[in-house]
Amino acid sequence: MSIRIVLAAIALGVACTACSSTQYIIGTKTGQLLVSYGKPSLDDKTGMYTYKDSEGKKATISKDEVGQILER
Fold it and tell me: Tens of pLDDT along 28-49?
């Protein structure tokens, strides 16, 4: 029975890794390209996108600066 739990935990870990590895390219209106690991989320109250950068750190950018967001 414990082997089933271990296998389920491994499967869940692999599934979560696959989900978080999706990259998005944020193209700014000035031509800068930013890489986001995971889909950027927009806070409607502040008008800011929050995303994880290439170092895994939380970063923000104003929606007014964003030209487009593409899934990679």
Answer: 999 999 999 999 999 999 999 9
Phi, psi of 36 (to 5 degrees): -115, 130
Q: Which two tokens stand for residue 13?
A: 């870990």
Domains belonging to the chain, first-starting first, are 23-72 (2.30.30.100)
CB atoms inside a 10 Å sphere around CB 60: 11
How many angstroms separate the CA atoms of 17 and 29, rounded? 31
- 14 phi, psi to nearest 5 deg: -65, -40
E-strand ranges in 1-72 read: 23-28, 33-37, 41-43, 48-52, 58-62, 66-71
pTM: 0.69
